Automatic annotation (TrEMBL):
Residues 11-105 form the Flagellar hook-associated protein 2 N-terminal domain. One of its GO terms (biological process) is cell adhesion. GO terms for cellular component: bacterial-type flagellum filament cap; bacterial-type flagellum hook; extracellular region. Homopentamer. Keywords: Bacterial flagellum, Cell projection, Cilium, Coiled coil, Flagellum, Secreted. This is Flagellar hook-associated protein 2. The lineage of its organism: Bacteria, Pseudomonadati, Pseudomonadota, Gammaproteobacteria, Oceanospirillales. It is found in: Secreted; Bacterial flagellum. Residues 397-431 form a coiled coil. Residues 225-448 form the Flagellar hook-associated protein 2 C-terminal domain.
Length: 467
């Protein structure tokens, strides 16, 4: 039998077209598997949205479960003389403060130098020495700065600024009649005052070292650094910086300007109110996500990705049980249910907050509010209970994680099934191809035989006609 390289050549039939139709029909068997794979991918994406909303809720209740939230203090200042921040060691109280003056840095400007900025002031390497009321931290006594040969006034400035631990910032100032080398202490306060500058080169006049930075010696302009001066409830206090710590235990004062101010250190009720509001918002956001994922539109027939999902029902049921439960003993005057704080569960499953009732509960007994949310040594409060439940649902053996794992396992199984079906389809199409090739060859051979016989009969007819 002749070898056929392309189907249909021998027979004249469109066997390739027929084979394509058979291939398309066979691959149609894959469509249900593809739809199932797509459905599982959509479910995993929906579980991811639900996981994000539940994690955000866990974070919100976790904040309410921290006792430190209810023990935090705020520092409220009346007046513009200072700002304040209360730390964990602060104690409630009222303070009258007066800032007499702020801390300032010392400065020293050299005598006026009659040179151009491009003029070299050193023929060889020289040493410039800085003196302070107290040497900067990490330094001892005077500070030496090496000035290279051929340095201009700007080069001297740069050498000082490049000296690690110099304790000053240098600049070149033109006072209208000539240039000065100006130095400013990097730190504020009297102890950081710069008291002298000497230079081997000799182009500065003698007497640069001043015993009192307020003096003017040989054209030197010096200004002493100054400590901040303030009083707290009449008690005089000095500070080398404008950020004062320790004057009031646990409170940091940031001095802004001279003047009077009143400081109130009190319980930070705003943080508690914001945390409770955040808890309500996070739960409602979670409910909104669940609502979208389980919705059903009767008009279009469109169903949410997780409609009827058992993991969603488990999450809703467990959280609803926690929210409606009792955590305190009302007979003992304790806050027992969310309604005691102005939080109610609506018919649609969301929470609503009456801020007035919450403010009243906080103002009446912050300790009771704390116990309601955080519980005691052996019992969980409302926030602790919800945080534990959310953690379990999100955990490695939780309902949500198990649902995701189940969807991923189904995808793996469907992928394996898809591969097996593709292999079966390929084998079937190949079998058809072989059979069509055989058919094509057979028909081609039959056509050849038919042509031969036709020719023979024609020849016989011709011979008989002649006879």
């Amino acid at each position: 039998m002749a070898s056929i390289s392309s189907l249909g050549i021998g027979s004249g039939l469109d066997l390739n077209g027929l084979l394509d139709q058979l291939n398309e029909a066979e691959r149609g068997k894959l469509e249900p598997v593809e739809r199932q794979l797509e459905s599982q991918q959509v479910r995993i994406s929906a579980y991811g949205d639900l996981q994000g909303a539940l994690s955000a809720f866990e974070g919100a209740v976790g904040r309410l479960a921290e006792p430190s939230l209810f023990q935090s203090l705020s520092a409220n200042v009346t007046g513009e003389a200072l700002q304040a921040a209360a730390g964990p060691e602060a104690a409630p109280g009222q303070y009258q403060l007066e800032v007499e003056h702020l801390a300032s840095a010392g400065s020293l400007a050299s005598q006026r130098i009659d040179v151009d900025l491009d003029d070299a002031l050193t023929d060889a390497e020289q040493t410039l020495t800085l003196a302070f009321a107290n040497a900067p931290e990490g330094e001892q006594g005077e500070i030496a700065v090496t000035v290279p040969a051929g340095s201009t006034l700007g080069d001297i400035r740069d050498a000082i600024n490049a000296r690690e631990g110099a304790g000053v910032s240098a600049s070149v100032v033109n006072d209208g009649e000539g240039y000065r080398l100006a130095l400013m202490s990097n730190e504020t306060g009297e102890a950081a005052s710069i008291t002298g500058l000497t230079f081997e080169g000799g182009f500065f006049a003698e007497g640069m070292a001043v015993s009192d930075p307020g003096d003017e010696v040989a054209g030197v302009v010096a200004q002493a650094g100054r400590d901040a001066a303030l009083s707290v409830n009449g008690i005089a206090i000095t500070s080398p910086t404008n950020q004062v710590e320790g004057a009031i235990q646990g409170v940091t004062l940031d001095l802004q300007q001279a003047g009077r101010a009143t400081l109130s250190v009190e319980q930070d009720t705003l943080a508690v109110r914001e945390a409770v509001g955040g808890f309500v918002e996070a739960y409602n956001a979670l409910k909104g996500t669940i609502g979208e994922l389980t919705a059903f539109d009767a008009d279009s027939g469109r169903a949410g990705e997780l409609l009827g999902d058992s993991a969603v029902r488990t999450i809703e049921s467990r959280l609803r049980n926690d929210l409606s439960g009792m955590v305190g003993d009302p007979a003992q005057g304790e806050l027992a249910v969310l309604g005691d704080l102005g939080i109610s569960l609506s018919l649609d499953g969301t929470l609503s907050l009456d801020e007035g009732e919450l403010d009243l509960a906080i103002a009446s007994d912050m300790g009771a509010v704390q116990r309601f949310f955080t519980g005691g040594e052996e019992t969980l409060g409302m926030a602790g209970r919800l945080s534990e439940t959310a953690g379990q649902l999100l955990g490695s053996n939780g309902a949500l994680t198990n649902a995701i794992d189940g969807a991923e396992n189904r995808i793996e199984s469907l992928n394996q099934r898809y591969v097996r079906m593709e292999q079966g389809i390929a084998q079937t199409i190949e079998r058809y191809r072989v059979q069509f090739g055989q058919l094509d060859g057979m028909i081609a051979q039959m056509n050849q035989t038919s042509d031969y016989l036709t020719q023979q009969f024609a020849t016989m007819d011709a011979q008989l006609g002649r006879d």
